[in-house]
């Protein structure tokens, strides 16, 4: 976190009672956002790769607060961070098949001011998540030098 949210592989969002689960096809990553619960104090959260995320709905926007990301986990574009990093997100549909995640990283130890960026997701209607195995080798470099991914066709 937050790099998981910038994945080049498909990501699936599942809402169940009390939780939003995000499954990334790459490396079969799973992130849980616990709904309508208070965030724990940073010092009480055991550090992990995805941290501890809590969220709440504000109208049509999922507002998420994440703390407890291990310092060894590289952040956005390999940005370093301390154990004091806090990630705030605002996730919402901006069109029927387009979702934005506005991500703000706060870390007074290594950042002069909060850093905000937005990632976008496009709905892949009918796509089925695939098992991630390193030897899939679905990435390729096209004739313009851009890394792309072969998607399963139906």
Keywords:
mainly beta, Lipocalin
How are the elements arranged and paired?
Layout: E1 11-16, E2 19-24, E3 29-35, E4 52-58, E5 61-67, E6 86-95, E7 98-106, E8 115-122, E9 139-141, E10 147-149
Parallel strand pairs: 3-4
Antiparallel strand pairs: 1-2, 2-3, 4-5, 5-6, 6-7, 7-8, 9-10
In this structure, how is the largest beta sheet organized?
Answer: 8 strands, mixed
Count the E strands: 10
Pick out the low-confidence regions. none
CATH topology: Lipocalin
Rg on CA atoms, Å: 16 Å
Quaternary state, please? single chain
Strand content: 35-45%
How far apart the termini lie comes to 32 Å
Q: Provide the domain count.
A: 1
Number of helices: 0
Percent helix, as a range, is: under 10%
Record the strand order, biggest sheet: 1-2-3-4-5-6-7-8
| Average pLDDT score | 88
* CATH architecture assignment name: Beta Barrel
Overview of the molecule:
With about 150 residues, the protein is an all-beta fold. It has one domain: Lipocalin (Beta Barrel), CATH 2.40.128. The chain is built from no helices and ten strands. It has an eight-stranded mixed β-sheet, with no helix packed on it. β4 and β5 form a beta hairpin. The two termini are about 30 Å apart.
Task: Quickly describe the structure.
The chain is mainly β and 154 residues long. It has no helices and 10 strands. The mean pLDDT is 88.
